[in-house]
Every structure is written in structure tokens, then in C-alpha cells.
What does this fold into?
Amino acid sequence: MARFVRAALLAARSLAPVALILAALLPLSALPAGAEPLANACKGKTYAPQTIDVTQPLNLGQLKNQLYFYACSGAYDRDLNTVLAGARAYVAERAAHVAKPAIVLDIDETSLSNLPVELADDFAYLQNIPCVPDMSKPCGFNNWELEGRAKAIDGTLALFKTAKQHHAAVFFITGRHENEKAATEKNLKEAGFEGYDGLVLRQGHDNMTVAQYKSGERAKIAEEGYTIIVNAGDQESDLAGGYAERAYKLPNPFYYIP
Ligand SMILES: [Mg+2]
It folds into this structure.
């Protein structure tokens, strides 16, 4: 076992610098479509080639450089689109063959993008700080959510529309709480998610894990006779626990929800 771990570390060590150097050479001029809210955070960043020594804890500054590159270069959008194209194809093929087809979508970093606030806060999780319109200064995550300014993740909006075209119901299951319901409904509508069949928010405080809460809510949908053919989320905890034919994990290296 120790030999395997050592071999894996050596392999990762030999490959990681190559991957990062390649990434750093990609052009940053081609920002993804709809990237205007990110412009301030992406402007003036330099992305030097990095070498990672995996025998020590990873360097936080280097990791942040990777995240800025991933968010600003278009690589993140490309990876999102790859996963979501697969989900769309499956809905188009499968919906007509099951009783009461449905899809389940997470909201944050699945349906709506919070990248502007993540970049404005340099990947910290800040609360209770009023946000400036151009997002050029730190901003509270709760303030941002209550303003309802998040843009749709394009591939997920396309998945939503595909589901509607194929007469599949769409349910949002989110870790957001009830006090954010009005802002979330407004944001979803303005981002283009109109005509969904359910929005489940978390009620008060319970002792459930995210996976228990979300799979429990999917179970309730299944009990209503729906066949959940696709479940999409950016965290493994969005997807664990079954009650979906297929689970689609979207990339999110920016934060982790166990
Ligand atoms: Mg999420």
C-alpha cells in the first residue's frame, strides 16, 4: 500500500507541473460569454506557471491563482458545458420512456452562478457586507443572495428548457433557507428559469446532513409518482443517496459542502 501511495505521489508530482504550465499558457483574452460581472476580478491577474510539491500541504496562493485562471479563462464554462450537454442528451432520449419524468437541480453553482462574489471576496466566505454594483469590493454572500443578481449557468438553463420541451417536471432542491425564498424566486425568474414545478428550501435547523436532506426531498418527489431521470449538482452531497436514474456532477473547485 505504501508503495502504491508513493508511486501515486511521484506520478502526480511529475504530471502536475506539466498540467499547470500548459494551463498557464492558454490565452486569457477570450473571456467566456456573459463574463462582464467577472471583469473586475479577472483584470490584471497574472498566471505564472506553478510547480506543486504534493508531499506538503498545497500552497494557498498558488491554489487561488489556479482558481482565478479556471474561472477567468473559460475553462470552467467549458467543463460545465461538457457535463450539462450529457444531461441534456439523456433527458431528450429518456423522458418519453418513463412515467412522469422529472429532473432535479441544485441552485448555487448549478443553476445560478455566484462567481462574481467568490472572486470579489478572493474565495473567502464573508457575510453581512453590502455589495457595490460593479462587485469591485468584498461583498457578503448573504447580501449577494438577497439581491438576487446571479446569472444563470447557461448549460443548466439549456437543460431546464430541454426538460420543459420533453414534458419533464423540474424541481429545484437547494440548501438555501426559507428566508431567502422571495429573493431566490425572483433571481430564478430573472435568470430565465420560468415555469418550474417545485422549489424546495431548507426549513429551520435540523440535524440532517446535506445528503440526507436532499435525498429525502427526492424521495418525496418519487413518492408522488415522478421518475427523476436527472439530478444535477456541484457537490457530491447534492447527488448522494439515490432517487435519480443519473447524477451529473458539475465542476466546483471554489468551495466544498460536505
Ligand atoms: Mg450548489
About this structure: Residues 106, 108-110, 233-235 surround magnesium ion (CB under 6 Å). Residues 2-72 form one domain. The radius of gyration is 20 Å. The beta strands are 101-105, 112-113, 151-152, 169-177, 198-202, 227-233, 246-249.
